[in-house]
Design a protein that fits this description.
By secondary structure, this protein is an alpha+beta fold. It has eight helices and six strands. The strands form two sheets. It has a four-stranded antiparallel sheet. A two-stranded antiparallel sheet has the order 3-4.
Protein backbone atom coordinates (compact mmCIF):
# COMPACT_ATOMS: atom_id res chain seq x y z
CA UNK A 1 0.00 0.00 0.00
CA UNK A 2 1.26 3.48 -0.79
CA UNK A 3 0.78 6.42 1.55
CA UNK A 4 -0.90 9.02 -0.68
CA UNK A 5 -1.05 12.68 0.31
CA UNK A 6 -2.62 15.70 -1.37
CA UNK A 7 -0.87 18.47 0.50
CA UNK A 8 -0.67 19.65 4.09
CA UNK A 9 -3.83 19.57 6.18
CA UNK A 10 -3.88 20.02 9.95
CA UNK A 11 -6.02 17.97 12.31
CA UNK A 12 -6.46 18.39 16.07
CA UNK A 13 -4.10 16.52 18.39
CA UNK A 14 -5.93 13.54 19.93
CA UNK A 15 -6.82 14.31 23.51
CA UNK A 16 -4.87 12.80 26.40
CA UNK A 17 -5.47 13.32 30.13
CA UNK A 18 -3.77 16.37 31.63
CA UNK A 19 -1.07 15.31 34.13
CA UNK A 20 0.76 17.17 36.86
CA UNK A 21 4.56 17.28 36.83
CA UNK A 22 4.57 14.83 39.72
CA UNK A 23 2.33 12.39 37.84
CA UNK A 24 4.49 12.70 34.72
CA UNK A 25 7.63 11.88 36.72
CA UNK A 26 5.91 8.96 38.43
CA UNK A 27 4.80 7.60 35.05
CA UNK A 28 8.30 7.99 33.59
CA UNK A 29 9.84 6.15 36.52
CA UNK A 30 7.21 3.40 36.39
CA UNK A 31 7.96 2.88 32.70
CA UNK A 32 11.69 2.72 33.45
CA UNK A 33 11.07 0.14 36.19
CA UNK A 34 9.05 -1.98 33.76
CA UNK A 35 11.60 -1.76 30.95
CA UNK A 36 14.51 -2.39 33.33
CA UNK A 37 13.24 -5.97 33.63
CA UNK A 38 13.60 -6.50 29.86
CA UNK A 39 16.41 -8.92 28.99
CA UNK A 40 17.30 -10.80 25.84
CA UNK A 41 17.00 -14.56 26.34
CA UNK A 42 18.00 -17.59 24.28
CA UNK A 43 16.09 -20.25 26.22
CA UNK A 44 12.40 -20.23 25.33
CA UNK A 45 9.43 -22.23 26.55
CA UNK A 46 7.22 -23.85 23.93
CA UNK A 47 4.17 -22.36 25.68
CA UNK A 48 1.91 -20.98 22.94
CA UNK A 49 1.37 -17.24 22.51
CA UNK A 50 -2.00 -16.16 21.08
CA UNK A 51 -1.84 -14.64 17.61
CA UNK A 52 -3.88 -11.67 18.88
CA UNK A 53 -1.04 -10.70 21.23
CA UNK A 54 1.47 -10.65 18.36
CA UNK A 55 -0.93 -8.65 16.20
CA UNK A 56 -1.47 -6.08 18.97
CA UNK A 57 2.30 -5.67 19.45
CA UNK A 58 2.89 -5.22 15.72
CA UNK A 59 0.03 -2.72 15.57
CA UNK A 60 1.89 -0.79 18.26
CA UNK A 61 5.06 -0.90 16.15
CA UNK A 62 3.04 0.61 13.33
CA UNK A 63 2.45 3.72 15.47
CA UNK A 64 6.14 4.64 15.44
CA UNK A 65 7.23 7.90 13.79
CA UNK A 66 8.78 7.62 10.33
CA UNK A 67 10.40 9.81 7.71
CA UNK A 68 7.67 11.72 5.82
CA UNK A 69 5.18 9.32 7.48
CA UNK A 70 6.02 6.74 4.81
CA UNK A 71 6.03 3.88 7.35
CA UNK A 72 8.68 1.90 5.44
CA UNK A 73 8.33 -1.37 7.32
CA UNK A 74 6.69 -4.75 7.05
CA UNK A 75 6.54 -7.52 9.65
CA UNK A 76 6.14 -11.22 8.92
CA UNK A 77 4.95 -13.19 11.97
CA UNK A 78 5.64 -16.92 11.72
CA UNK A 79 4.36 -19.72 13.93
CA UNK A 80 4.46 -22.50 11.30
CA UNK A 81 6.95 -25.12 12.55
CA UNK A 82 8.06 -26.08 9.05
CA UNK A 83 8.97 -22.55 8.07
CA UNK A 84 10.67 -21.91 11.40
CA UNK A 85 12.81 -25.00 10.82
CA UNK A 86 13.78 -23.72 7.36
CA UNK A 87 14.73 -20.35 8.80
CA UNK A 88 16.82 -22.01 11.50
CA UNK A 89 18.66 -24.17 8.97
CA UNK A 90 19.43 -21.20 6.71
CA UNK A 91 20.42 -18.96 9.62
CA UNK A 92 22.74 -21.57 11.11
CA UNK A 93 24.45 -22.02 7.75
CA UNK A 94 25.28 -18.30 7.71
CA UNK A 95 26.27 -18.36 11.37
CA UNK A 96 28.72 -21.24 10.87
CA UNK A 97 30.43 -19.28 8.12
CA UNK A 98 30.55 -16.27 10.45
CA UNK A 99 32.07 -18.11 13.40
CA UNK A 100 34.42 -20.26 11.32
CA UNK A 101 36.38 -17.40 9.79
CA UNK A 102 33.93 -14.97 8.26
CA UNK A 103 34.11 -12.53 11.17
CA UNK A 104 37.19 -10.64 12.38
CA UNK A 105 38.76 -11.82 15.62
CA UNK A 106 37.84 -8.54 17.33
CA UNK A 107 34.16 -9.13 16.64
CA UNK A 108 34.29 -12.70 17.91
CA UNK A 109 36.06 -11.49 21.06
CA UNK A 110 33.35 -8.87 21.62
CA UNK A 111 30.66 -11.57 21.42
CA UNK A 112 32.41 -13.98 23.81
CA UNK A 113 30.92 -12.50 27.04
CA UNK A 114 27.45 -12.82 25.49
CA UNK A 115 27.90 -16.55 24.90
CA UNK A 116 26.62 -16.69 21.32
CA UNK A 117 27.45 -19.42 18.80
CA UNK A 118 26.36 -20.91 15.51
CA UNK A 119 23.59 -23.04 17.03
CA UNK A 120 20.22 -21.26 17.14
CA UNK A 121 17.66 -23.64 18.71
CA UNK A 122 15.48 -20.71 19.77
CA UNK A 123 14.46 -20.29 16.13
CA UNK A 124 12.65 -23.62 16.44
CA UNK A 125 11.47 -23.46 20.05
CA UNK A 126 10.12 -19.91 20.34
CA UNK A 127 6.43 -20.02 19.36
CA UNK A 128 6.78 -16.98 17.09
CA UNK A 129 9.42 -15.51 14.82
CA UNK A 130 8.83 -11.95 13.64
CA UNK A 131 10.92 -11.00 10.63
CA UNK A 132 11.36 -7.24 10.25
CA UNK A 133 11.62 -5.90 6.70
CA UNK A 134 12.63 -2.41 5.60
CA UNK A 135 10.85 -1.09 2.51
CA UNK A 136 13.47 0.59 0.36
CA UNK A 137 10.88 2.17 -1.94
CA UNK A 138 7.12 2.44 -2.25
CA UNK A 139 4.87 1.77 -5.21
CA UNK A 140 2.06 4.03 -6.40
CA UNK A 141 -1.26 2.58 -7.61
CA UNK A 142 -0.04 2.95 -11.22
CA UNK A 143 3.03 0.83 -10.48
CA UNK A 144 5.65 3.59 -10.42
CA UNK A 145 8.17 3.71 -7.61
CA UNK A 146 8.78 6.52 -5.17
CA UNK A 147 11.67 6.91 -2.74
CA UNK A 148 11.37 6.27 0.98
CA UNK A 149 13.34 8.55 3.29
CA UNK A 150 15.14 7.76 6.54
CA UNK A 151 14.38 4.07 6.17
CA UNK A 152 16.92 2.62 8.68
CA UNK A 153 16.01 5.20 11.30
CA UNK A 154 12.27 4.65 10.82
CA UNK A 155 12.51 0.86 10.95
CA UNK A 156 14.72 1.09 14.04
CA UNK A 157 12.10 3.20 15.79
CA UNK A 158 9.32 0.77 14.87
CA UNK A 159 11.37 -2.21 16.04
CA UNK A 160 11.98 -0.46 19.37
CA UNK A 161 8.24 0.10 19.73
CA UNK A 162 7.69 -3.59 18.96
CA UNK A 163 10.23 -4.87 21.49
CA UNK A 164 8.76 -2.60 24.16
CA UNK A 165 5.22 -3.74 23.38
CA UNK A 166 6.21 -7.40 23.54
CA UNK A 167 7.96 -6.92 26.88
CA UNK A 168 5.07 -5.01 28.42
CA UNK A 169 2.80 -7.84 27.25
CA UNK A 170 4.77 -10.26 29.41
CA UNK A 171 6.81 -11.80 26.59
CA UNK A 172 10.53 -12.12 25.95
CA UNK A 173 12.35 -11.55 22.69
CA UNK A 174 15.71 -12.24 21.11
CA UNK A 175 17.05 -10.01 18.35
CA UNK A 176 18.89 -12.04 15.71
CA UNK A 177 20.67 -10.62 12.66
CA UNK A 178 22.22 -13.37 10.52
CA UNK A 179 24.33 -12.00 7.70
CA UNK A 180 23.58 -12.09 4.85
CA UNK A 181 19.81 -12.32 5.24
CA UNK A 182 18.65 -12.71 1.64
CA UNK A 183 17.22 -16.14 2.49
CA UNK A 184 14.53 -14.42 4.58
CA UNK A 185 13.23 -12.53 1.55
CA UNK A 186 12.83 -15.81 -0.31
CA UNK A 187 11.40 -17.87 2.56
CA UNK A 188 8.91 -15.14 3.53
CA UNK A 189 8.00 -14.46 -0.12
CA UNK A 190 8.61 -10.73 0.14
CA UNK A 191 9.18 -8.37 -2.82
CA UNK A 192 12.53 -6.98 -3.98
CA UNK A 193 11.60 -3.59 -2.52
CA UNK A 194 11.96 -5.02 0.99
CA UNK A 195 15.19 -5.80 2.81
CA UNK A 196 15.19 -8.11 5.85
CA UNK A 197 16.92 -6.48 8.80
CA UNK A 198 16.15 -8.65 11.82
CA UNK A 199 14.51 -11.75 13.24
CA UNK A 200 12.80 -11.48 16.61
CA UNK A 201 12.26 -14.78 18.38
CA UNK A 202 9.28 -14.22 20.69
CA UNK A 203 7.74 -16.21 23.50
CA UNK A 204 7.90 -17.03 27.19
CA UNK A 205 11.23 -17.80 28.87
CA UNK A 206 11.95 -21.42 29.64
CA UNK A 207 11.98 -22.47 33.27
CA UNK A 208 15.44 -21.70 34.59
CA UNK A 209 16.30 -19.39 31.67
CA UNK A 210 19.47 -17.37 32.16
CA UNK A 211 21.01 -14.24 30.72
CA UNK A 212 24.71 -13.47 30.27
CA UNK A 213 26.14 -11.71 33.32
CA UNK A 214 27.76 -9.20 30.97
CA UNK A 215 24.34 -8.23 29.61
CA UNK A 216 23.28 -7.02 33.06
CA UNK A 217 25.88 -4.25 32.94
CA UNK A 218 24.30 -1.06 31.61
CA UNK A 219 25.97 2.31 31.21
CA UNK A 220 24.96 4.71 33.99
CA UNK A 221 22.86 7.74 33.13
CA UNK A 222 25.79 10.15 33.37
CA UNK A 223 27.53 8.26 30.54
CA UNK A 224 24.58 8.36 28.14
CA UNK A 225 23.14 11.80 28.93
CA UNK A 226 24.34 15.36 28.42
CA UNK A 227 21.98 18.12 29.51
CA UNK A 228 22.30 21.56 27.95
CA UNK A 229 19.95 23.87 29.80
CA UNK A 230 19.43 27.60 30.26
CA UNK A 231 18.80 26.96 33.93
CA UNK A 232 21.07 25.40 36.52
CA UNK A 233 19.02 23.14 38.72
CA UNK A 234 19.91 23.21 42.39
CA UNK A 235 18.94 20.68 45.01
Amino acid sequence: MSIETTGYRATPLPQRPEMTDEAILAAARAHFDAMATRHTIREFSDRPVPRAVIEAAIATAGRAPSGANQQPWHFVAISDPGLKAQIRAAAEEEERAFYEGGAPDEWIAALEPIGTGASKPHLDVAPWLIVVFAQRWGTKPDGTRYKHYYVPESVGLATGFLIGALHLSGLSALTHTPSPMKFLTDLCDRPASEKPVMILAVGHPAEGATVPAAAMIKKPLEEILTVISADTETT
